[in-house]
Design brief:
There is one protein chain. The protein has a two-stranded parallel sheet with strand order 1-2. The protein contains 11 helices and 2 strands. The N terminus and C terminus are likely disordered. It has 2 domains: 181 residues, no CATH class; 84 residues, no CATH class. By secondary structure, it is an all-alpha fold. 77% of the residues lie in helices and 1% in strands.
């Protein structure tokens, strides 16, 4: 049996497990090496991660410049919200956690490559071509979601929540753990939420939904989007609105994607009919 399997070019179950084991080992090695490098660059890493909590963050400067260019004299009020650590090992554990998560993020193209190489023998040539395209779109949407969170959603929501006071005598001091947890959660969730067009495309290809159905349930979708945004964001109305707007925009993009896919499908179907008639 093993000789026939080897001669036919197919791997046995044990062979697949061995390939999987080697693939996971390579991925772990890459992630560990990247994590070690990131851990060594502590100052640079946390300068980037902690930048959104400062009043001179690049997003605020660009908003001010844009409004001033339009003739509106506007400036964000300066603030200084200190980050504190209340547990003995909190900073060290945060350093390790951040290093591991950033290592996985930076290694994600390589991880996708390894996963594709593992499943590619089972795919047809046409499927491989579409797999490259799908993987590229998914990764691009994920990165756009991360950047959207880093440059827009998180700094603005932090500025609003951290400077909000019910009384001037109450001083806001944010723990490092609270900052990093909120930052990672919001950023990761935005990366996932930005997959909405791809998710809609897959459901459309499977025949579960189409553009007309999404149009029909726009109002219900908007309410559902607001509920999802309320779950994944800090508990304030301002951040809820900031998250709801881009997610609903992705919903409209999903309608466009399904429209174009349906149109292309109709063209391909007509070509097949015409060929059969000829």
């Amino acid at each position: 049996m093993s000789e026939q399997t080897e001669n036919s070019g197919l791997l046995s179950f044990g062979g697949h497990l061995d390939v999987l084991r080697k693939m996971l080992f390579r991925i772990i090695v890459v992630v560990v090496v990247l994590g070690g490098v990131i851990f060594c660059f502590k100052s640079e890493t946390f300068t980037i991660l902690l930048a959104p909590h400062k009043s001179d963050f690049i997003t605020f400067r660009y908003i001010e410049d844009l409004l001033n260019f339009c003739g509106i004299n506007f400036h964000f009020s300066e603030y200084n919200i200190p980050l504190i650590s209340t547990e003995l090992s909190a900073q060290f554990m945060t350093h390790i956690t951040v290093s591991c998560l950033l290592a996985v993020l930076l290694a994600s193209p390589y991880i996708l490559f390894e996963l594709f190489r593992f499943v590619s023998p089972a795919l047809y040539e046409s499927e491989k071509k579409y797999s490259y395209l799908v993987a590229g779109i998914v990764y691009t949407l994920f990165i756009i979601g991360l950047l959207m969170s880093y440059f827009v959603l998180f700094p603005i929501s932090f500025q609003f929540l951290a400077t909000y006071q019910v009384d001037n005598e109450i001083v806001n001091t944010i723990t490092l753990d609270s900052y990093i947890t909120t930052f990672i959660t919001l950023t990761f969730m935005m990366g996932v939420v930005f997959q909405l067009p791809m998710f809609a495309f897959v459901l459309g290809k499977m025949g579960f939904i189409d553009a007309n159905l999404l149009k029909q349930y726009r109002a219900y979708a908007f309410v559902l989007i607001m509920i999802v945004a309320a779950i994944i964001t800090p508990p304030d109305l301002f951040t809820l609105i900031l998250v709801t707007i881009p997610i609903y925009g992705l919903y409209e993009v999903s309608i466009i994607v399904l429209k174009k896919w349906a149109k292309n499908n109709d063209v391909e179907y007509d070509d097949i009919i015409n060929t059969d008639v000829q």
